[in-house]
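Progress against Task 2.4 (sequence-to-structure conversion) is shown through the following example record, which the project officer requested during the mid-term review.
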Amino acid sequence: MTTAAKRLSYTGTFTFQSGGNSETFRITHIVDSTGEHERLEVLDGSPREVVRSNDEVKCFLPDEKVVLVESRGQQQSFPALLPSSSANLGEHYTLRKGEVSRVAGYESQKIVLEPKDSLRYGHALWGELNTGLILKARTLNERNEIIEQYAFNQLQIGGAIDRNALKSKFGREGEAWRVHNTQAAQSRSAGGEWQFRAQLPGFKKVAGMKRMLAGQRGTEISHFVFSDGLASISVFIEPLAEQKVETSIYSVGAINVYKRTQGQHLLTVLGEVPVGTLRQLGDGIAQKKK
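Structure tokens generated for the chain above:
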């Protein structure tokens, strides 16, 4: 299951539900001698697209006439939800098999990941029996309620897949749109003046990078990613300038967000983990004394 989504060619549609919102996507993923190539198209509302060739990702936003370009690196996405190695998942999740059932016409094995503490959410995954490709995934809160779900409605695994399905419908007109290169520079020194005093069992800092704030020349934002191999938490640290920001907590589907100020900086901590986890990490962030 950890490698199926990267090594297989497939095409289909899936539904994403988060909170009270639901969207349908079409995905085409082809693996050949040149690597991984993928096109993800939103079928509801504004016709957005994400086209990926190996690590280069282009996001087409026709309403704004904007193309966002970024390097995805090791970022996880559906249906590649699991890390490249699942060896350490058992330290913080209890894994067990569920029933075998049909999803999008395929027999699938249900795998349940129950958290061993209150720092993370539970997950249920349905992997296609022959290939392991994840056909459905649920995120479950501490009350075992579904807070986010992905599920394929229609799917073809392998076989002849038309490479033209990888081409953006906005490819040509997109050349005249505004291009925002949102590449983040990986940096060993990113946020070196900050310390993370809270210890979250299982969560390790896996990335540190610097980004330029859009429309603000010379203003850098530090971005850190912590992960336990399945759940991820992002921390953004940016200058406040003159604005005042109140401490706040809010949710967007399965993603919780915690904001607070530290001196002249705004700290934003977010991820698909319980609010208490974000607060624990966020309240332990402080500037190093000079």
